[in-house]
């Protein structure tokens, strides 16, 4: 079962949440971030090139112009490959684990997998940063202390969806976690 | 369950008989036909039982019907399938093979269930036959996977024969099928992070958490994957190497050659280290010189590293192997860079001009130092110095400098020979050449070191004297027995002389302090240059190039985990 809804992130940009229910024990949530806007790209390029032209008129050295072109190209490639995240995916498989994938604009994918044995709970936390921000995070168990938490792993860090989107994801995750706890508790 | 006699099994009942079904078909609870599905089979009980995870290799998805062989991990309730044994087989030989692999890799394998790949429409008796196998190889729970030819629908069933301990628990478990790429899992060498302190070596492998157990199982059962389908073994297996064992000629040759080469090099290295540890080198002047030269330190370090690499013991775990590989690669890089340096030096015959330029540079440095001392003897930076002390110190250092210049001029005919030998030592590695260079710099700036020592000693004496006389001025004294300052009553003449000396020292302080400051700064400059060279040497020594190369070229070998993909594609 697959459906798609659109939400907005904390800055007001549009996000698309795609939910896929493969089975009662396997669900995937895919958040697509807003694309790189042509306007900001043009603005940055124009600024850099105008600055380079200004320097050129001062120094009369044409290497500055070629250097500016290289810098712009390399900067754009680096931004697309290392910074700009297109899509963030959360895949929950009951009794196996939780996987978070970030796919960058250049096609690179980086994944993190957390085993179900280490997951204590999935919660929505509040953070206060000029205003109140909500974020979804995974709490990991502490091997030393049975009731302690060793790590808090935030999810959807670059998409930054708002509370309504987070609540949808939270409900589905809790269903699976509850089912998993029930089966692990019973013999 | 239909019983199949041993005779029939031994005669090899072919898979191509007739029809039929193994259990309740189909696993897909939801309308999308995008399997292979994760969700489990089962029409029967919907009571939530333990989910059984079955890890199935992707290479066996197209294999013929047969038996599933692998390891059952009860703690995670997961079955790791390693290979499929095809018909015909003799159960005794299968058990022997499993015992062999168990001995080789200390991992307990068993027959986990049956795999049915139906190629024709109706194969009834195959189903009965497969069920019958469950009585020969008993295993709890018994896994039954089935697939139709050309279709993407699978069925998975796990049954338990015994009466479950608590009533109400189902006979059949839910099965979650996870596909994994055997080759990548084997090559990624994901092993349990640390053995538990209370686990015993031997048959029971330390129970690792979660997925690390899967990877560990696959890595340990390498003995199972050694034969491919072209070998005439008693048992026919399907696994990732069954289409041909992966090997490279160079790797095999290197493995064969490495044994005798290691033995030979280990002997040579032990001879060298025995020679260097002999008593002759422990006599006083030589041992002092050895300890000061950084090139000896570097050579000793390299000797230790090479002994480690070429030792005849095999590496026990992947960490040690990685360490050895890193050391070997760094030694090779070092030698390569050294040879490049050597060829550059010899290429345009640069040694001559370099040697000729060295003596004028040393002269120039000495001249600059002379100017500095003249400046200090005048009124440096507008400060007024004590004339007499200034002249004494200035003349003393100038004389020293003069001695040094004559020494350099004495050495100048031999410089070219020395440089040539230094260049030759670059064969041993760039680090050795850099260490020798740093030692040469230390020797050439020995006079700066001497000036620094004189200035520091003088300053130190002055400060000691000043502090002790300051105490006397206040009527106190340092009690050596009690390590503290006590009051003391001095005689009048003691006080008088003490105060006089105190004032003299105080007024001479700026001069001495200035000399001390200048020479300390010069010494710091030299130390900074030497430190930079040592930093470079340490970088070449300790950079883990092999691991970096692995990360760039074969990242899956260093993987911490492998990504999963949801159904619609194979899950790894």
From TrEMBL, chain A:
Q: Pfam families given for it? A: PIG-H
Any keyword Membrane? yes
Gene Ontology cellular component?
glycosylphosphatidylinositol-N-acetylglucosaminyltransferase (GPI-GnT) complex
Kindly give the InterPro entries that the UniProt entry links to this protein. Answer: PIG-H, PIGH-H_dom
Record-level Gene Ontology MF annotations: glycosyltransferase activity
Q: Which residues form a coiled coil?
A: none
Membrane-crossing ranges are 36-56, 62-82
Its pathway is: Glycolipid biosynthesis; glycosylphosphatidylinositol-anchor biosynthesis
So what family is this one in? Belongs to the PIGH family.
The entry's protein name is: Phosphatidylinositol N-acetylglucosaminyltransferase subunit H isoform X6
Q: Which organism is it from?
A: Callorhinus ursinus
């Amino acid at each position: 079962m697959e459906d798609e809804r659109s939400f907005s992130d904390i800055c007001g940009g549009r996000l698309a949440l795609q939910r896929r229910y493969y089975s009662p024990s396997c669900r995937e949530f895919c958040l697509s971030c807003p694309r790189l806007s042509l306007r900001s790209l043009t603005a940055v390029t124009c600024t850099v090139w105008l600055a380079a032209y200004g320097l050129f008129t001062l120094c009369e050295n044409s290497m500055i112009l070629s250097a500016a072109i290289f810098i712009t190209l390399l900067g754009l490639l680096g931004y697309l490959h290392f910074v700009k995240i297109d899509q963030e995916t959360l895949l929950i498989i009951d009794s196996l684990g939780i996987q978070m994938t970030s796919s960058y604009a250049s096609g690179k994918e980086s994944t993190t997998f957390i085993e179900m044995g280490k997951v204590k709970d999935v919660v929505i936390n509040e953070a206060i940063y000029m205003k109140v921000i909500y974020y979804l995070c995974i709490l990991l168990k502490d091997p030393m202390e049975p009731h302690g938490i060793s790590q808090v792993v935030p999810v959807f860090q670059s998409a930054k969806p708002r509370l309504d989107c987070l609540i949808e994801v939270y409900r589905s995750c809790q269903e699976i976690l509850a089912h998993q706890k029930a089966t692990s508790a019973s013999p | 369950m239909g019983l199949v006699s041993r005779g029939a099994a031994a005669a090899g009942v072919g898979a191509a008989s007739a029809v039929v079904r193994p259990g309740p078909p189909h696993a897909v609870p939801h309308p999308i036909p995008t399997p292979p599905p994760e969700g489990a089979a089962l029409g029967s009980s919907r009571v939530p039982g333990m989910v059984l995870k079955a890890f199935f290799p992707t290479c066996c998805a197209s294999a013929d019907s047969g038996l599933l062989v692998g390891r059952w991990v009860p703690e995670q309730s997961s079955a790791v399938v390693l290979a499929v044994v095809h018909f015909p087989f003799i159960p005794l030989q299968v058990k022997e093979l499993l015992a062999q692999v168990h001995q080789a890799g200390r991992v307990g394998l068993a027959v986990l269930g049956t795999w049915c790949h139906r190629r024709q429409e109706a194969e009834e008796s195959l189903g009965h036959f497969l069920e019958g196998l469950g009585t020969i190889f008993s295993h709890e729970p018994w896994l039954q996977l089935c697939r139709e030819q050309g279709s993407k629908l699978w069925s998975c069933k796990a049954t338990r024969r015994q009466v479950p301990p608590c009533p109400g628990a189902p006979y059949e478990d839910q099965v979650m099928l996870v596909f994994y790429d055997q080759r990548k899992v084997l090559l990624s060498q994901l092993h349990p992070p640390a053995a538990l302190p209370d686990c015993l070596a031997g048959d029971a492998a330390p129970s690792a958490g979660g997925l690390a157990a899967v990877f560990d199982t696959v890595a340990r059962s390498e003995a199972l994957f050694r034969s491919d389908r072209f070998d005439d073994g008693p048992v026919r297996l399907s696994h990732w190497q069954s289409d041909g064992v992966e090997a490279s000629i160079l790797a095999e040759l290197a493995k064969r050659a490495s044994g005798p080469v290691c033995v030979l090099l280990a002997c040579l290295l032990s001879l060298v280290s025995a020679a260097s540890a002999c008593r002759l080198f422990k006599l006083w002047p030589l041992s002092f010189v050895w300890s000061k030269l950084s090139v000896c330190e570097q050579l000793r370090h390299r000797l230790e590293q090479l002994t480690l690499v070429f030792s005849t013991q095999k590496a026990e775990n992947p960490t040690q192997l990685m360490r050895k590989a890193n050391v070997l690669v760094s030694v090779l890089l070092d030698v390569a860079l050294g040879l490049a340096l050597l060829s550059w030096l010899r290429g345009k015959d640069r040694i001559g001009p370099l040697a000729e330029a060295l003596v004028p540079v040393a002269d120039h440095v000495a001249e600059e130092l002379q100017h500095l001392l003249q400046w200090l003897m005048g009124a440096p930076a507008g400060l007024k110095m004590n004339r007499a002390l200034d002249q004494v110190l200035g003349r003393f250092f100038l004389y020293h400098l003069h001695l040094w210049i004559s020494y350099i001029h004495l050495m100048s005919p031999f410089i070219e020979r020395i440089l040539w030998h230094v260049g030759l030592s670059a064969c041993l590695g760039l680090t050795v050449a850099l260490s020798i260079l740093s030692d040469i710099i230390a020797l050439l700036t020995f006079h700066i070191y001497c000036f620094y020592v004189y200035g520091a000693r003088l300053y130190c004496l002055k400060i000691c004297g000043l502090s002790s006389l300051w105490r006397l001025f206040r009527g106190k004294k340092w009690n050596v027995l009690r390590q503290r300052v006590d009051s003391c009553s001095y005689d009048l003449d003691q006080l008088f002389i003490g105060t006089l000396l105190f004032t003299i020292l105080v007024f001479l302080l700026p001069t001495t302090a200035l000399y001390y400051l200048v020479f300390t700064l010069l010494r710091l400059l030299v130390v900074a240059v030497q430190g930079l060279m040592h930093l470079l040497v340490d970088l070449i020594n300790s950079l883990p190039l092999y691991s970096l190369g692995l990360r760039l070229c074969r990242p899956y070998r260093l993987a911490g985990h492998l990504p999963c993909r949801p159904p619609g594609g194979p899950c790894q």
